[in-house]
Write a structure and sequence with these properties.
globular, 23% strand, two-stranded parallel ribbon, alpha/beta, 227 residues, 10 strands, six-stranded parallel β-sheet
């Protein structure tokens, strides 16, 4: 199925984390480089009034790095919820402990792995969202900003200000940052699509789980985009 075109002024494209470490580096996703050319073709078609690129931008010693905890990558640990540690609100309904998935060190700000893939047409971006910048907080979604008191990025506010109605998500990885971004876009009230031909995922099991979560959130998965 292809997404039906609407008024171009109502549409935004979010290109999620098409960075070297996710393509050929420490946390490479299988066949990830194959989506770069289709994304560029979509960008060059100028079908969107707003184009956003997101980028993992971690400090050394980030909470998601296995090396930070002396653990092996692709395992998980339980950590105190940083939101509760910061607010110290005993009446909060947030869970006291969170599961933290652990990865190889990746996308450390300023490194070659943090940079966008060299063939990606970054010049089409209206703005770039950096995420995961605080050492003690993890964030998959481009709508999450740890530095804000309301824990949202400027992304939701900016898209609303620009009159965006529909959001299309592409990039890496489907089962983590793409899916989380799409779910948050839908939660912000945008009609949200993920273009399946322009994403790659880490593992079949987590891709299947994310597909279920997106379906429950009202996100539509389409095979392609037709202007």
């Amino acid at each position: 199925m292809a997404a039906a075109a609407t008024d171009r002024r109502n549409r935004a494209l979010i290109v999620v984390d098409v960075q070297n470490d996710f393509i050929s580096g420490s946390l490479a996703v299988k066949d990830a480089e194959a989506i770069v050319s289709p994304i560029n073709e979509l960008l060059r078609g100028k079908h969107f009034d707003t184009v956003v690129f997101s980028r993992d931008s971690h400090p050394v010693g980030h909470v998601s790095f296995a090396s930070t905890h002396g653990k092996q990558p692709f395992t998980s640990i339980q950590l105190p919820n940083p939101a509760l540690l910061e607010t110290r609100n005993p009446s909060s309904t947030e869970p006291t402990m969170l599961t933290q998935e652990l990865w190889p060190d990746h996308c450390v700000a300023g490194t070659s792995g943090w940079e966008f893939h060299p063939a990606l047409d970054v010049e089409f971006a209206d703005f770039i969202i950096d995420k995961g910048q605080r050492a003690a907080r993890d964030s998959y979604s481009a709508f999450w900003r740890e530095a804000d008191s309301d824990d949202t990025t400027k992304l939701g506010r900016e898209l609303s200000k620009r009159g965006v109605v529909e959001v299309y998500c592409v990039g890496l990885a489907y089962d983590y940052c793409v899916g989380s971004t799409a779910i948050d876009a839908a939660a912000h009230g945008f009609k949200t699509y993920v273009i399946n031909s322009m994403v790659k995922g880490v593992m079949p099991e987590t891709c299947a789980s994310m597909s279920e979560r997106m379906d429950a959130a009202g996100v539509t998965i389409v095979d392609s985009f037709e202007a």
